[in-house]
Specification:
about 350 residues; alpha+beta; Immunoglobulin-like; six-stranded mixed β-sheet; 13 strands; respiratory chain; palmitate; transmembrane
Length: about 350
């Protein structure tokens, strides 16, 4: 028991000691829900101990023994009424907080109740096994370090270059999934300056335990200095640099990039960073227009975006990408198929 207590002393209590408005609202919802459920849990625990003692077979006084007792209307009201009221209250709070804390909903100064600065835009990419943070307005990027000004909303766009995982900074707010080929959004704010722990909260492979980062909340002046430090880097985040960064690695150090390809995040989300790859939005548009037909077969290899990596998440070679398949012009005996022959086969089947 003492060992368990000692181990708990090393735990962090960011959820119950938030440093941002979103996290504080989530804590309040957690506390309210817990207190409401304790209305049922505490009496049940008490009765589980008191009933066996009060009505044990060897008790001295058996005058209250009622073997024919089977029903109590008052007891039924309590047993059903209290849980119904609790569930109704929980439903109201769930509805309110679900809309108030919608991760896609921008933060409102009036609702927060304090003056806040202009929002800062950050694009987040989860890789194997590191985090990439792109600042489109500042034109810089960083690996495994998220710097933000305090008391300013943080508008995050998130995607993944690989498997699904979750982005989480417990002191500032809840977690949200990052998925390849998709974009999610999250809005946070840091109420105070400080360094807050961030992590991937969803298992994503052997480097998962090292996939964490520091969130640096600082003053506007300090943030400007951080941006200048990033701009002083000799590295630029081009598409070629990103493809090298995308190679699976563990426990990567913090790294800065002084320039970022303006289209990089959209290409990461569209799974088309590689030269010659067709982006997902273009694929969907072509599908909506009826497809590429026979003329599109020559470009088939550009659509196989799952084959764009040379190695998998464990560093093993994936193999040679699939080659485009040629259109079939006939049977094995060399007979040419025509549209009429297909139509005839269809009519024969009818």
């Amino acid at each position: 028991m003492l060992g368990a207590v000692a181990s708990l002393s090393a735990c962090q209590y960011d959820v119950l000691a938030p440093s941002g408005w979103v996290a504080a609202e989530q804590r309040d919802l957690l506390v309210i829900s817990t207190l409401l459920m304790l209305i049922v849990i505490i009496p049940v625990i008490f009765m589980a101990v008191w009933f066996p003692l009060r009505y044990r077979a060897d008790r001295p006084d058996l005058s209250d023994y009622a073997p024919t007792w089977a029903h109590s209307t008052k007891l039924e009201y309590v047993l059903w009424g209290v849980p119904i009221v609790i569930v109704a209250i929980l439903g109201v709070y769930t509805y309110i907080y679900t809309h108030r804390l919608d991760p896609y909903r921008p933060l409102d100064a009036a609702e927060i109740g304090t003056e806040i600065g202009e929002p800062i835009e950050v694009d987040v990419v989860s890789l194997d096994w590191k985090w990439l943070f792109i600042y489109p307005e500042q034109g810089v990027a960083s690996v495994n370090e998220l710097a933000v000004p305090a008391n300013r909303p943080i508008n995050l766009r998130l995607t993944s270059s690989t498997v699904m995982t979750t982005f989480s900074v417990p002191a500032l707010g809840g977690m949200i999934y990052t998925m390849a080929g998709m974009e999610t959004k999250l809005h946070l704010i840091a109420d105070e300056e400080g360094t807050f722990f961030g992590q991937a909260a969803h298992y994503s492979g052997p480097g998962f335990s090292e996939m964490h980062f520091d969130t640096l909340a600082m003053s506007d002046a300090d943030f400007d200095q951080w941006v200048e430090k990033a701009r002083a880097s000799n590295d630029e985040l081009s598409r070629e640099t990103y493809l090298a960064l995308e190679v699976p690695s563990m426990a990567d150090p913090v790294k800065y990039f002084s320039g970022v390809d303006d289209t990089l995040f959209d290409r990461i989300r569209g799974l088309c960073v590689d030269e010659g790859k067709v982006c997902m939005d273009q694929m969907m548009m072509q599908d909506e227009m009826g497809g590429g037909g026979l003329e599109g077969i020559a470009d088939k290899h550009k659509y196989q975006y799952d084959d764009q990596r040379a190695i998998d998440g464990f560093g093993n070679p994936i193999g040679v990408p699939a080659t485009p398949s040629a259109p079939a012009h006939g049977h094995e005996d060399g007979e040419t198929l025509s549209m009429n022959s297909h139509e005839g086969a269809a009519h024969d089947g009818i």
